[in-house]
Design brief:
The protein is an alpha+beta fold. Helix content is 24%, strand content 26%. A 3-stranded antiparallel sheet has the order 3-4-5. Strand 4 and strand 5 form a beta hairpin. Helix 1 packs across helix 2.
């Protein structure tokens, strides 16, 4: 059975200001009025035998559909406030990430290029690259500008 907005609203209440779902029905050890979900990497909620991520349920609850990708603007996967959730493309979702632990320079989108540093990002399968700069700081500024131009509101700072 595919979960519908009406079925979701029969069993759960979503509070957009807090991002918290509460049960409207009691079943087993789940009591009406108690918070729903288990926090792990994401908040997971079981409805009618299927487990869903809470941010996906928030879209179903509010708009009646579940987008392919949803981005948590503040990158906290357990913060399901409606104001923190937005539809994203895969490229947008990647843009809103921190520097990874395996990044040797500690600066997102910057790599060594000959005797200097260059910024690079990909949007829609197209690679955008800056010129070579003598310092990592200049390349980080170039990345920030590329990100602002190509990722807009999804752009994340180049530095951790």
């Amino acid at each position: 059975m595919n979960l519908t907005q009406s079925r979701l609203k029969e069993v759960l209440h979503y509070e957009p200001a807090t991002g918290v779902f509460t049960w409207l029905v009691s079943r087993g050890n789940q009591k009406a009025g108690t918070p729903a979900g288990v926090a792990g990497r994401y908040v997971a909620i079981g409805v009618d035998g299927t487990t869903y991520r809470a941010h996906r349920l928030a879209f179903l609850y509010m708009l009646g559909y579940i987008p392919a990708l949803i981005d948590h603007e503040d990158m906290d996967k357990c913060n399901n406030r409606w104001s923190n959730l937005r539809v994203a493309s895969g490229s947008d979702n990647q843009a809103n990430k921190r520097v990874t632990a395996r990044n040797k320079l500690g600066v997102k989108g910057v790599s060594r290029n000959g005797k200097g540093f260059a910024a690079q990002l990909t949007k829609g399968g197209i690679k955008y690259r800056s010129t070579t700069y003598p310092t990592i700081e200049q390349a980080a500024e170039a990345y920030a500008e590329l990100a602002r131009i190509h990722h807009g509101e999804y752009a994340r700072s180049a530095v951790a």
